[in-house]
Design a protein that fits this description.
Strand order of the largest sheet: 3-2-4-5-7-6
Distance between the termini: 42 Å
Largest sheet: 6 strands, parallel
CATH superfamily of the largest domain: Thiamin diphosphate (ThDP)-binding fold, Pyr/PP domains
GO cellular component, one term: acetolactate synthase complex
Structural class: alpha/beta
Catalytic activity: 2 pyruvate + H(+) = (2S)-2-acetolactate + CO2
Number of domains: 3
Pathway: Amino-acid biosynthesis; L-isoleucine biosynthesis; L-isoleucine from 2-oxobutanoate: step 1/4; Amino-acid biosynthesis; L-valine biosynthesis; L-valine from pyruvate: step 1/4
EC number: 2.2.1.6
Family: Belongs to the TPP enzyme family.
CATH class of the largest domain: Alpha Beta
Length: 639
């Protein structure tokens, strides 16, 4: 037999306690599969996503009409993971999915890695071959614990039926506590079919796992002192603040200190865009004012943020004059990329609730610093360098709409409570820049991993959450690209059969837009393998008008899946299509917006460059000192 991975060997050891020297006989007798379903019910899990297969069939056999949770059947295992992510972000609860062994489990690696990067709480239950078959290269055997070891928060290999309730309880707790993340429970068929005695609640024994939620020591007073000494502070707010439900606390901190707020991509919406303290997103495609605030500040307060390269640009040139307060629940993030002057480990909402009174006491004694010159500088940048776009001088025949205009119209015409979901690419950045976010937890996107194909299944998960928590009164709009959408378009079947209607806007430019943008800027306009030919005019008809060959034809594709399909070439058609989509709530609606393929996302900081090199438009670098030349070398550029 092959040697198991160290984690398998550890997780596979049956847990015995001082009072567990013999088989437990208290409780109801049932199979391990039945115990799994019962444990999820007892945890209060209300929605599960998945796809059956041979090694997990005992569990699916235990799911029936009397099961208390709703099961959503997807068409691909990866979609189950992304749907669980969308559900978790929309509701704040743990997303749960159940898939089979081998390829079913390996198809889950991408959403597991995605959830790990974006701190999304998931419990991923995978089937596994029987204990005696492990290591024999049995049919559909894969060491999923070993394969996912680098990208999970924790993993279990369950070999005994009796361990299932405890493991599920632990996995659910670990996923949602501390820094949220994905937990894998690899369930052998031996454990599923074995008999056990079920009892609840379970006693969790997690030595060494004690997430810190409250700040310790003098760090709060130290942080308050830095605020008192700062005349150019900025609150750099990341996804961790969203996961902590710290919207109110962040807004209050900005109000009492006068500090501007800049956000990362996952934190969009944590404070409404109409809050005057909110400068928007910073970094590679952020606003000039937000990026300038970070570059020129004397105090950088990182709140649930991890100093990602898309935010910092060239790391040693990021916020070069700033002292740093770093608040994060994960101690591993403190000092990982930037050494803080005041490190604060704890839950963001809890820490801010304790820090705000400390700052108020400090202000009562010493007053507030005068931030007017700071705000005058930032407001001037905000007014001069707005997020806007230019109409192309020579509109090509492959698209008659500006994609940015489409996003603006979607935002203007949407219900204020809309949950926005995106795929990955140019459309993702335009959505983050141009949607008018009004509420927290209204933005779901793949940030750290940048997973194309994330959008549709995540929107399905968000719609399940909306139906569960808000009676479906929060509509879900997906803004996707034609390339990203095609990676998981089969989930249109899920939206129809599982009654999870979403509204889909495809910005169809017939190319991999973001890749093409980089090819334009850094690779001599060599458009190698980025033309999708899914809406192009391939030849001229006799009358001289272009003939379009749609492969796929997104309207027909939508209709084939029982959805409503529409197409828009003109602004009038676009507005009418959006109006109709907003009125249809019983079926999924897909709008194929034909947009200009050469539109670009601005502002932009090239990978490897300093944020001071941000380009507002070609030839305009507003943060670069006058007379200073230089730009990122091509060799430094990359995704």
């Amino acid at each position: 037999m092959a040697t198991p991975t160290p984690l398998q060997a550890f997780s596979g050891v049956p847990k015995t306690h001082a009072d567990d020297t013999q088989t437990i006989v208290d409780g109801e007798k049932m199979t391990g599969a039945q115990a799994l379903v019962r444990a999820l019910e007892d945890l209060g899990v209300q929605d599960v996503f998945g796809l059956p297969g041979g090694a997990i069939l005992p569990v699916y056999h235990a799911i029936n009409d009397d099961t208390k949770f709703r099961f959503t059947l997807v068409r691909h295992e990866q979609a189950a993971g992304h749907a669980a992510e969308g559900y978790a972000v929309a509701t704040g609860r743990v997303g749960v999915c159940i898939v089979t062994s081998g390829p079913g489990a390996t198809n889950m690696i991408t959403p597991i890695a995605d959830a790990n990067m974006d701190s999304v709480p998931l419990v991923v239950i995978t089937g596994q071959v029987g204990v005696n078959a492990i290591g024999t290269d049995a049919f559909q055997e894969a060491d999923i614990v070993g394969a996912t070891y680098p990208v999970v928060k924790h993993s279990y290999l369950v070999t005994r039926a009796q361990d299932i309730p405890r493991v599920i309880a632990e996995a659910h707790y670990i996923a949602r506590s501390g820094r949220p993340g994905p937990v894998v429970v690899d369930l052998t068929k031996t454990a599923q079919v074995g008999e056990m005695y079920y009892s609840w609640p379970q006693r969790m024994i997690l030595p060494g796992y004690n997430p810190i939620t409250k700040a310790h020591g003098r760090v709060l007073s130290d942080a308050a002192k830095l605020f008192a000494q700062s005349y150019r502070p900025v609150l750099y707010v990341g996804g961790g603040a969203s996961r902590s439900n710290a919207s109110k606390e962040v807004a209050e901190l900005a109000e009492i200190t006068g500090a501007p707020i800049v956000t990362t991509l996952p934190a969009r919406g944590i404070v409404p865009d109409d809050n005057p303290k909110n400068l928007g997103m910073l970094g590679m495609h952020g606003t000039v004012a937000a990026t300038a605030a970070a570059q020129r500040c004397d105090l950088l307060v990182a709140i649930g943020a991890r100093f990602d390269d898309r935010v910092t640009g060239k790391l040693d040139a990021f916020a070069p004059l700033a002292r740093v307060i770093h608040i994060d629940i994960d101690p591993a993030e403190i000092g990982k990329n930037r050494a803080p002057d005041v490190p604060i480990v704890g839950d963001v909402a809890t820490v801010l609730n304790d820090l705000i009174p400390e700052i108020k006491r400090s202000q009562a004694i010493g007053g507030k610093p005068n931030l007017k010159p700071w705000w005058d500088e930032l407001n001037a940048l905000r007014e001069k360098y707005t997020i806007h776009y230019d109409e192309p001088e020579d509109q090509p025949t492959d698209g008659t709409l500006q994609p940015q205009w489409v996003v603006e119209q979607l935002s203007k015409m949407a219900d204020p409570s809309t949950i926005w979901v995106s795929g990955v690419g140019q459309h993702q950045m335009w959505a983050a820049q141009l949607i008018d976010f009004k509420k927290p937890h209204s933005w779901i996107s793949s940030g750290g991993l940048g997973t194309m194909g994330f959008g549709l299944p995540a929107a399905i998960g968000a719609q399940v959450g909306s139906a569960r928590d808000f009676g479906g009164k929060k509509p879900v709009w997906l803004i996707d690209g034609d390339g990203s959408f095609q990676m998981t378009s089969e989930e249109l079947a899920t939206t129809f059969h599982d009654h999870t209607p979403v509204k889909i806007a495809i910005l169809n430019n017939s190319v991999y837009g973001m890749v093409r943008q980089w090819q334009t800027l850094f690779y001599d306009q060599h458009y190698s393998q980025t033309n999708l030919l899914d809406g192009e005019a391939h030849n001229e008809a006799e009358e001289g008008t272009p003939e379009f060959f749609d492969v796929p034809d997104f309207v027909k594709l939508a209709e084939a899946y029982g959805c409503v399909g529409m197409r828009a070439f003109t602004q009038e058609e676009a507005v009418e299509a959006i109006r109709k989509a907003n009125e249809i709530n019983d079926r999924t609606v897909l709008i194929d917006f034909r947009v200009w393929k050469d539109a670009m996302v601005w502002p932009m900081v090239a990978a490897g460059a300093s944020n001071n090199d941000v380009t507002y438009r070609p030839g305009t670098q507003p943060l670069r000192p006058q007379g200073e030349a230089g730009a990122v070398e091509l060799g430094e550029a990359g995704f």
